[in-house]
Amino acid sequence: YKLAEDGVGLVPDANGQAALTKIIEMHRAGYRVAAIARQMKEDGYPTSCGGIWRSATVAAVLKRQQKLAA
Questions:
Q1: How far apart are the first and last CA of the chain?
Q2: Are the beta carbons of 40 and 57 closer than 8 angstroms?
Q3: DSSP code of 46?
Q4: Which of 30, 36, 44, 45 could make an SS bond with 19 (beta carbons 3.0 to 4.6 A apart)?
Q5: What is the full per-residue pLDDT of the chain (70 aa) written as tens digits?
Q6: Which residues pair with 10 in a beta bridge?
Q7: Distance of alpha carbon 56 from alpha carbon 24, whole angstroms
């Protein structure tokens, strides 16, 4: 999701969803966070802030997803 034009709401973000799906699939396949971050950079996926992927970023995404799934 990303911030809506009104600056308050959230709207679906196709790029963000694609990145999230890839991270989850790679993690389930047994890839470590460093390998996932490297692959995300190589594939050109930006982070939600437009930066590059780091291990800590991938770990934070996975941790947030685990909390949401609980």
A1: 20
A2: no
A3: P
A4: 45
A5: 677 888 888 787 778 889 999 999 999 999 999 999 999 999 999 888 888 999 999 999 999 988 888 7
A6: 3
A7: 15
